[in-house]
Amino acid sequence: MTTTTHTVDTTHELAAFLRARRERLDPHDLGLPPRRQPRRTPGLRREEVAELAGVSVDYVVRLEQGRGMRPSADVVEALAGALRLAPAERAYLFDLAGRRPHTADEPATGAAPLLAGLVADLSPLPAMLMNHRYDVLAWNRESTRLLIDFDALPPARRNAMWLCLMHPVIRELYVDRDRVVREGVAHLRAAWAAHPEDRALTDLIAELHAGEAEFARLWAERDIAINGRGHKVLRHPEAGMLAMHFEVLVPLQDPSQRLLVFRAADDESRAALARLCA
């Protein structure tokens, strides 16, 4: 991917994703018989993928060479099963093949008023509202105490992925930063395929890809993940160590927006968070 990319090159990415997932599989785990000749490349052979998916070898070859093939939904499902794709990876493959309907609505650039009110009402729990590209659209006071004062940031820099990679304060905040960044990149890749015409998203990816070697390395691994809940440990400059659970909720009326809520994971963190936000 280059800095001039403004849309998803689905043909190229479909080919690269199929190759990457094929090469990650261990033939022994799939119960395939051993070959007399040693394998020269890791993972499955194209012939084995074709057999598992019930398609021709030539078809798999053409897909992996990016010859402009657009597989049917049935073939995508068969390939997903053959490659043992996780649910988020399966959805990603359907997006690349153009077999999952996309909404015609513009990506949210501002918080829905009722949702912004809900974020405020969730105090004393730290909460914020984001869109699919991690732009922070609304936040409450507790989230600014826990993370960063979003009001003090230029609107173009109120993006959780950019902050985690580029902002000096947020870069040092997460104890397990490598995992946090990896999961964020994996989410962003899924969003990239689900919103192929979102120029702001592809511009953000291009900026991070060109300016941050860590992002470029993780982007090339093609991991796909959508985390609706999880656990993060923060090394807060004022409150000390904070163990936090988080939950991501998608409103039915505004599915382009995501409500992120944090909760303290233990009594010590709960007390420290209360002191921080008092």
From TrEMBL:
| A single MF term (Gene Ontology) | DNA binding
Residue ranges crossing the lipid bilayer per the database entry = none
User: What's the superkingdom here?
Assistant: Bacteria
Spell out the CDD domains in the cross-references: HTH_XRE
Which Pfam families does the UniProt record give? HTH_31, MLTR_LBD
Region listing for Disordered, in residue ranges: 25-45
Which SMART domains does the UniProt record give? HTH_XRE
Q: Where is the HTH cro/C1-type domain?
A: 43-90
Question: Sorted alphabetically, which PANTHER family does this protein's record hold?
Answer: BLL4672 PROTEIN, BLL4672 PROTEIN-RELATED
Protein name stated in the entry: Transcriptional regulator
Q: Which organism is it from?
A: Embleya scabrispora
Lineage of the organism:
Bacteria, Bacillati, Actinomycetota, Actinomycetes, Kitasatosporales
